[in-house]
Design goal:
Blueprint: E1 7-14, H1 32-35, H2 38-58, E2 62-70, H3 78-91, E3 99-103, H4 112-120, E4 125-127, H5 135-140, H6 147-160, E5 165-166
Parallel strand pairs: 1-2, 2-3, 3-4, 4-5
Length: 170
């Protein structure tokens, strides 16, 4: 339907990745030391999500879409993903959203357990982002996965029940 002036979208950033891609201009932390901050970041993020939703409600707005992007949200393990998604779904009914998306961007960070945690929280769209379907280019740009891992991640997402999957190519 047509968006209402009272509709808004929420973007939640997970600025962590397994490794840095050469083309990336996003804020993203990849070192072991900084990846060690994930639990602390998640605690603060969940606090900020609750505060933001309070502000949105105080303004009389309705959240129509939620997008969890990055970085690479699937850098979070399944326990961390559950904490994040529990925080969101405690405050927003996924059944009332027009779209609830999680970037499962790096095929090498996708597992059945993570996909099942995402699906359980009624996320209706994921992104599996290979960027290219050529192994040689993946190596050149610093993506530490293969074309086969992309295909496997896509098939696994289908097995778990996702029927709305997009892929980014550059």
């Amino acid at each position: 339907g047509r968006p209402s002036p009272k509709d808004c979208s929420v973007y939640i950033s997970i600025p962590f990745c397994p490794s840095r891609c050469s083309y990336c201009s996003f804020v993203s932390f990849t070192s072991a030391k900084l990846l060690g901050l994930l639990d602390s970041y998640l605690i603060r993020l969940c606090h900020d999500i609750n505060h933001t939703i309070d502000q949105i409600r105080a303004l009389g707005l309705t959240i129509s879409t939620v997008y969890i992007g990055g970085g690479t949200p699937t850098t979070l393990d399944e326990k961390q993903l559950k904490i994040l998604l529990d925080t969101i779904t405690a405050r927003i009914d996924p059944n009332t959203l027009e779209e609830f998306t999680v970037e499962a961007g790096r095929p090498d960070s996708v597992t059945r357990e993570k996909l099942e945690a995402i699906k359980k929280h009624k996320v209706d769209r994921i992104s599996v982002n290979p960027q290219t379907m050529k192994d040689e280019t993946l190596k050149i740009i610093g993506r530490h996965h293969t074309v086969q891992q992309t295909i496997d991640a896509y098939k696994l997402a289908r097995e778990v029940g996702f029927d709305n999957i997009n892929m980014d190519l550059i």
